[in-house]
Task: inverse folding
């Protein structure tokens, strides 16, 4: 099986308390493809300008990433500059230049329209719909979005949500879209549109996967973030979370509730590696064995045993 990702490929200027980088490899597609390629073959559909460095194209090809859907047009590549505060929780955008990305319309090559796993990175929901309309019965579709599209293109985003299996949003975005102050209520509204699962990303506080189960234990899965002492650059963490999630499911082939839970933990593990260095630099040397080891650590960190009868007061009933 393979994975199709549609979104941005760009160049970034990033400042964090740990340092800074200029014109480094960036974009949601880039982060996703670099990480997901550890699991399976990845096809990128995006656009870059004639100024995009050849070394980055060579790097992606070496990562088992197919670039037949990458448009290279005359002009400048999408550019973003941002600065993170001391707590790394807030990022100030210093500059955004859409450049050739402003006129981008995703054209899915015919040979990729039967791809079974499709991830729509954070782009205009009208473009996400264009992609979905070109695909032939994928096994799993997922999309990411942001507050800008919730405000400016709510109707289109709502339509896109009805067309996918999995939605990934951060907590503020989920509450904003649903118009709710309670996350459980927000999740219920979003799942009511049609998705089978909603993953709410909470940064350093982990993530929550909401599913359509009947009981709380069937419909809710809580995953903590992996504890890190030093975070270098949070850019791309959400995209690589999605990569670990989609990559595991494509490799495993299952779509059960148990598989979704394991996929969330894979996403957590991959994202934790991403933030350890700037751009995709930590991912360059990452292996599936590294991810599996961190998966096992997360499993150990969150394990606890059932209460015994004595601990329940001797009557076999919870205290």
Result:
């Amino acid at each position: 099986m393979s994975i199709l990702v549609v979104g941005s490929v760009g160049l970034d200027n990033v400042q964090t308390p740990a340092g800074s980088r200029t014109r480094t490899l960036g974009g949601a597609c880039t982060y996703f493809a670099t990480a997901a390629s550890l699991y399976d073959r990845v096809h990128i559909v995006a656009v870059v300008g004639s100024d995009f460095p050849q070394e980055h194209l060579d790097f992606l090809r070496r990562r088992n990433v197919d670039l037949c859907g990458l448009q290279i047009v005359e002009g400048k590549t999408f550019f973003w500059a941002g600065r993170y505060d001391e707590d790394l929780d807030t990022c100030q955008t210093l500059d955004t230049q859409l450049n050739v990305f402003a006129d981008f319309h995703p054209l899915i090559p015919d040979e990729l329209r039967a791809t079974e796993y499709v991830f729509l990175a954070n782009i205009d929901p009208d473009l996400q719909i264009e992609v979905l309309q070109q695909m032939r019965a994928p096994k799993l579709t997922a999309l990411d979005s942001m507050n800008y599209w919730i405000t400016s293109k709510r109707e289109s985003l709502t339509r896109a949500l009805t067309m996918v299996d999995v939605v990934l949003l951060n907590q503020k975005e989920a509450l904003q879209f649903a118009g709710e102050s309670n996350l459980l209520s927000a999740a219920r509204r979003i799942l009511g549109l049609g998705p089978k699962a909603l993953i709410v990303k909470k940064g350093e506080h982990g993530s929550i996967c909401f599913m359509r189960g009947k009981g709380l234990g069937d419909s809710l899965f809580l995953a903590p973030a992996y504890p890190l002492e030093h975070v270098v650059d949070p850019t791309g963490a959400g995209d690589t979370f999605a990569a670990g999630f989609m990559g595991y499911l494509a490799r495993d082939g299952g779509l059960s509730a148990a598989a979704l839970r394991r996929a969330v933990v894979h996403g957590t593990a991959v994202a934790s590696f991403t933030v350890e260095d700037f751009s995709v630099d930590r991912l360059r040397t990452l292996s599936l064995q590294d991810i599996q080891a961190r998966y096992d650590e997360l499993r150990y960190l969150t394990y606890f045993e059932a209460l015994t009868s004595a601990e329940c007061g001797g009557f076999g009933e919870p205290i």
In short: Residues 129 and 160 are 6 Å apart (CA to CA). The mean pLDDT is 94. DSSP finds eleven helices and 13 strands in the chain.
